[in-house]
Structure formats: C-alpha cells, structure tokens
C-alpha cells in the first residue's frame, strides 16, 4: 500500500513539473455523491476573484455585440444597395440627379482633403463629427445661457358677478361704463380662445365709455373662467346664453355685439339666431371657419398659407381627431406655467404684433387673462371651442346678406302678386356690420375680409394699413375712439335720469253755496272741518240762531 502512495505522489510531482502550478489542489478522495466525476470534485479550492471573471465576460460580450452590429450594418448596406440604391429604383431616379448636382457643385471642397483619403469616406466622418459637436453644444446650451425663471399660473379668488340661466347653469359677467339706467348704448362682447370676461376691449378707458354713454358687458363662455360648462354646447346655445344675459342685466333695448378674432363666431351666431335683439356688430379681425364652403379655393389658399405648420395641424386634429387635443393643451396653456402667446397658440405674427407682445403691459394683461381662462383646469371647453371653429356652423356668414324673400308657390301667391297685395319681406341681418381688418394680420389674413366683402356687400369693411392682429384692438386709445365714433357718431353722454314726479297738492275745499246762489262761509277760526261744513248745509240759520 505504501508503494501505491509513493507512486501517486511521484506522478503528481511529475505532472506539476509539466503543467505548472495552477494553484488548484485536488484531494485524493472523491465525493461519494457523484461517484467521483458526476458532481465535480468536492475538494476544489479557487483563489481567483469573482470581479475579474465578471469584467472578462462583460468585455467579451461587448466585443461580440460590436462584431454582430458591424455584420448587421454590412447586411443592411447590402440590402439597401440591392433594393433601394439601384439605378432603376424610384428613390435614385428622383433624388439621384439632385444629389449628383449638389456633389458636383461642392466638389471644389475635395481640394482641402488629404490626397490619400477617399472623399466619400472623409466627408462622412466630417459630417458625423459635426453632428456630434452640434449635439454637445445644444445639450450644454443651458449651462452657457442662464434660463429665465418660469412663472407659474396663479388661480385668483372668485370675483365675478353671476346670473342663473333657465337650464340651471351660471354665467359669469363683468360690466364697464355707465349704469344700466343711464346707458345710451349697450354692448355685449364674447371673448376669444384662451381668454375670459376680463378681456372685453383690452385697455379701453372708462372715460371714453362715459363720454358716449356706453355700457359694456363681457362674460365667460361656458366652461371658461367662472361660468359653468354646457353639456352639449353649439353656436345656437351660445346665442341663447347671450340673449338670457341681456335680459338678466337689464338690457331692454337692442344691443351691439363686439367680437375679436375667433370670438367673432359667437357674434355671427347672435346675428343669425337672435337678430331682433341686435342693433349692430363690431368685429375686429373676424375669424370664419377655415372650411367655409362658400369660400373660393384662392381665398382658402391665401388663408392657410399665412399660418404656421403647427396651427394647420391643430385645425386638422380638431376636425379629424379632436380626442388628441387635450394632450397638446395640457402641454401648453394648461401646463400650469406661463409662456409666450405665439408659442402657446402657434401664431405667426408680424413685426408690429411682436413689438406689442414684448410690452410689459401686454404681458401682464395676457397672463392675468389666461389665469382666469384656465381657472377650472378642464380641457373639454377648449376642445369644444376648437371643434366649433372648424365644424359646420349650421349657417354661413353669407346667410346674413339682406335680400328679398322669394314669394311662395301656389295659385294664391300668384293671384296676390297680380293684384299687388304681396308684402315685400327682407331676410338676413338688417342692422349694421362693421369689420376692421389689419392688412399685415397673419393670424386672420386679409383674404377673410375679402370673402366677407364679397358675400356681405352691405357690410362696412375698414382696411387698416400697417396694422397686425393685436395692434388695433389692444391698448390703443386712438383706435378705440375711432371705432366708437365710427359706430355711434358724436358723443352725447349718458342719458339724463328723469326727475321724480312731485306729489300732487291736495285740492282746496270749494266754497259752498246756499239755495239762493250766495256763498256761505263755513270757516270757523283757522280750519273748517267736514262736520261743520255739513252742519252749515243742514242748518244754514244756525249762526243767526246762536247770536
């Protein structure tokens, strides 16, 4: 037995001299569980570190992934060469000549490359490095230029007056100018998109309204500001809300409706559905539906060409996919922070409009108006408003044209027409319509006023040179005075209150005559009572009898 042990030890020493010291020691006994070879040696001792093994596997995996990516890229390149980048492919036929032309014009740049470099390879590397450098500069832009502080939207305490409508909803409103009993003219103004009752005629002075005796009433549309939302809102219900508001605030006579931008669609609705209550309309940069069927292709093309791509896409979404609008609204004016108006509403503005928007007074007014508009933090009213702009209104501004009503059909109408007994009936809106349009307006392009002038020949269109979308309506005292004087003429001031009637004096008692026609004095002392008068009539000789 000792010989066997000595031979085994000599074998290990000989093997170690050939293989080298691997720092692994094996026991002479095998595990009884695995039969020696099944489960591995029970006496293995590993002195290497697990971290080194992990790093080794990670490096090998990265090398394999890189090799696979290179092979995949080569495969994609071969596929593109065989299918897309062929001489007979559509892409090469359309884009190839243009690329060749550009490359020929830029071939002079190859002179600046090393002679031993392929231009295609060199320029691809140059453009790749340029792309990475641009990405790094854009990413580090925040560190180079300090960011301005973001102002959060503040919800103010409720402050509006409200009325109750027949359907139980409440409508918030605001009044300016003279009181109701002194108003010579009354004006009601619905607001535009992302606005509120606080807008009205921005910056108009109370002294101007008092000079002309005007009472201006503005209100929040359903779901905006402090007004309750409407379950199924449309333009007819908007006109009915305006009608109920006029009665609730004691506007007994006809009133003027004032509209600005896309808020004019509510003014158009008032002219269509409650014309008997409207004295006239004042519209500044009036918006019509971009899908108005009565517009010509040229008028539509001029309108759409002025808008930004984002605004066009928002109109398409409102018409085709309105359920996607809340996502965009919550990332803009419903995000809880303030932003620039042209960014929030995707507006394309001219030079004068941009200068006005940068004024601190306009910025303060705009932020306060937006805070009131988004008070309820509900996207549904804004979606409804956007859908109303692009949907079928149920009427066209052309329907407001004054024209004779066609006579009815039938033999009775024919007989009445022979004898001249038919009455001439006019249809459309019979009041005045004033339109002010800035010729540099890029939000509501001048082609809109051209359309209105064509379909409403009786409307008075005032074209304003060098004016934009906001410059003639916001914070312009001279412009406000020009609008008011054009509509109402010379200032006459508010109405004078009627004096209260004085109480009628009590009639003096008439003297009583006797049977002979002589007047009988019945005054005793200072006052003659009724009893004494009666007694004097019954006993005319009573005085002589007393004497």
From TrEMBL:
<feature type="region of interest" description="Disordered">
    <location>
        <begin position="490"/>
        <end position="547"/>
    </location>
</feature>
<dbReference type="InterPro" id="IPR029058">
    <property type="entry name" value="AB_hydrolase_fold"/>
</dbReference>
<dbReference type="Pfam" id="PF00561">
    <property type="entry name" value="Abhydrolase_1"/>
</dbReference>
<protein>
    <recommendedName>
        <fullName>AB hydrolase-1 domain-containing protein</fullName>
    </recommendedName>
</protein>
<dbReference type="InterPro" id="IPR000073">
    <property type="entry name" value="AB_hydrolase_1"/>
</dbReference>
<feature type="domain" description="AB hydrolase-1">
    <location>
        <begin position="209"/>
        <end position="473"/>
    </location>
</feature>
């Amino acid at each position: 037995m000792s010989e066997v042990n000595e031979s085994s030890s000599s074998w290990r020493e000989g093997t170690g001299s050939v293989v080298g010291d691997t720092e692994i020691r094996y026991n002479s006994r095998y595990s009884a569980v695995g039969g020696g070879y099944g489960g591995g040696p029970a006496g293995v001792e590993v002195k290497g570190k697990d971290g080194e093994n992990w790093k080794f596997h990670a490096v090998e995996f990265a090398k394999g992934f890189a090799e696979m990516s290179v092979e995949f890229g080569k495969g994609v390149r071969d596929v593109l060469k065989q299918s897309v980048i062929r001489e007979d492919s559509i892409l090469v036929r359309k884009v190839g000549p243009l690329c060749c032309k550009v490359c020929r014009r830029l071939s002079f740049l190859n002179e600046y490359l090393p002679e031993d470099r392929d231009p295609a390879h060199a320029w691809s590397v140059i453009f790749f490095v340029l792309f990475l450098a641009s990405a790094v500069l854009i990413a580090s832009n925040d560190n180079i230029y300090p960011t301005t502080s973001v102002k959060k939207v503040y919800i103010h305490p409720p402050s509006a007056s409200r009325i109750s409508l027949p359907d139980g909803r409440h409508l918030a409103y605001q009044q300016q100018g003279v009181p109701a009993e002194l108003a010579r003219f009354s004006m009601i103004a619905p607001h535009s998109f992302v606005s509120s009752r606080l807008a009205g005629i921005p910056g108009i002075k109370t002294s101007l309204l008092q000079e002309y005796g005007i009472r201006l009433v503005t209100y929040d549309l359903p779901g905006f500001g402090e007004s309750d939302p409407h379950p199924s809102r449309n333009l007819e219900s908007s006109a009915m809300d305006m009608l109920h508001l006029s009665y609730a605030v004691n506007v007994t006579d006809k009133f003027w409706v004032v509209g600005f931008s896309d808020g004019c669609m509510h003014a158009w609705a008032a002219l269509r559905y409650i014309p008997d209550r409207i004295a006239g309309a004042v519209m500044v940069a009036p918006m019509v539906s971009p899908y108005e069927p009565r517009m010509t292709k040229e008028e539509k093309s001029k309108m759409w060409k002025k808008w930004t791509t984002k605004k066009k896409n928002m109109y398409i979404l409102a018409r085709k996919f309105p359920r996607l609008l809340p996502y965009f609204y919550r990332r803009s004016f419903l995000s809880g922070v303030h932003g620039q108006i042209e960014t929030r509403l995707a507006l394309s503005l001219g030079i004068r409009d941009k200068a006005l928007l940068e004024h601190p007074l306009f910025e303060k007014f705009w932020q306060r108006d937006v805070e009131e508009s988004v008070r309820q933090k509900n996207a549904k009213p804004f979606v409804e408003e956007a859908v109303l702009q692009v949907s079928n209104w149920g009427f066209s501004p052309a329907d407001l044209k004054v024209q004779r009503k066609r006579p009815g059909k039938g033999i009775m109408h024919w007989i009445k027409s022979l004898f001249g007994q038919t009455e001439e009936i006019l249809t459309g809106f019979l009041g005045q319509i004033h339109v002010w349009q800035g010729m540099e307006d890029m939000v509501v392009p001048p082609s809109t006023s051209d359309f209105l002038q064509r379909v409403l020949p009786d409307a008075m269109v005032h074209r304003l040179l060098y004016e934009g979308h906001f410059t003639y309506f916001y914070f312009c005292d001279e412009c406000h005075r020009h609008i008011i004087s054009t509509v109402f003429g010379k200032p006459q001031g508010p109405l004078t209150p009627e004096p209260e009637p004085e109480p009628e004096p009590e009639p003096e008692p008439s003297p009583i005559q006797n049977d002979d026609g002589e007047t009988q004095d019945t005054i005793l002392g200072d006052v003659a009572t009724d009893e004494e008068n009666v007694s004097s009539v019954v006993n005319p000789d009573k005085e002589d009898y007393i004497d």
